């Protein structure tokens, strides 16, 4: 029994991988691969920083912090900030962006190609209703998530991806072309890859999924904090290693596909047409299975996490009722279509990702500055300024001459990373404040 429990992290890690690996994890690496061309491996390196490294760090940070949930962790800045930040995170990975995206990507890749010219808005509506009904049914019994996802759906998902990957290695679609304008040099490609990795939403989701992981680990009988933390680390490592391997090969398929299918606007047609060329009509079926499993497992996890948090926050309604509510909201947002969801997501990501990265770093460094709130406050406050500006600029808000000043005087701002310098300054100010104003005696 002990051995079985100690190895439980493998099943939990597979479940965690399946929860992470959804819509964005499929379409964005493929699109990036096409655009990056000869600099694809530099772009993949950057993509893995935010698409692999940051999710692992967010899981580890939650395990290391000992916090019971994201609200408690972010609440180290201020309780109100903790509440608002957590709500924004859950709504982003839930019914506003990530959850609806799972349904729309599944439709665009797994269903629409088979409908041809007969595809209509009504067909998408019917599909989304069925998709979120199944997601609701599986999410409504969270105690069975590990067995259903970690032991059944994930192996099937990995097996179907392996078929496509092996074929792409044996018979590449074509030669890798010149890099696009956003990936002109190795350095630029790496930085752009980092920003591309934002689209996965995984660093943000890692905060939330970590709570699920801790819960499942404790259910095995492991309750000692250090042992729980090690199990969290092991489970997270299993998940992100699988993510990283798949990102490499999906980006490779995208980079080699330009000669055969031309440049595409999104990753959905890249994957669809590449699968047809690599495996014929059977390839389309294989891809449909990959997408349906990946998107469904992610939708299940997101609905479950959102239902758990908001039931606790509001203090009313059953878990099943909250699952139903978030499934319906995700369905309604999904009906706006994939393109609308992607465009709407980017400004929010440019705002929330810097704040998430800073929180991860602060949680790890907590003991270095004795957990003083002033360090959290100053660092987050400075980061918040640039995160807000990033979001506004991405949303198309005209900042006039102020925008030019930022480009001229804020390092890395033109690359979307100007917040890093601000965060560092905020941290330094917080440390100075800590030294000047000692903590009050209890």
Q: Mind explaining what this structure looks like?
A:
Helix 4 packs across helix 16, helix 6 packs across helix 14 and helix 6 packs antiparallel against helix 16. The longest helix has about 50 residues. About 55% of the residues are buried. It contains 19 helices and no strands. It is mainly alpha-helical. The chain folds into 2 domains: about 350 residues, Amino acid/polyamine transporter I; about 80 residues, no CATH class.
Keywords:
442 residues; mainly alpha; Amino acid/polyamine transporter I; 19 helices; globular
Show the helix and strand layout.
Blueprint lengths: L1 H5 L1 H13 L2 H14 L3 H26 L4 H5 L4 H18 L1 H18 L5 H19 L5 H26 L15 H13 L3 H18 L5 H32 L1 H4 L5 H48 L4 H16 L3 H27 L8 H22 L6 H9 L9 H18 L6
Spell out the CATH superfamily of the largest domain. Amino acid/polyamine transporter I
Q: What form results from the Cα inertia axes?
A: globular
The percent range for strand residues is: under 5%
CATH topology of the largest domain: Amino acid/polyamine transporter I
Helix tally equals 19
N to C succession of SSEs: HHHHHHHHHHHHHHHHHHH
For the residues shown, what is the average pLDDT? 85
Please give the share of residues in helix. Answer: over 70%
**Total domain units:** 2
CATH architecture of the largest domain: Up-down Bundle
Quick overview of this protein structure:
The protein is mainly α and 442 residues long. The protein is built from 19 helices and no strands.
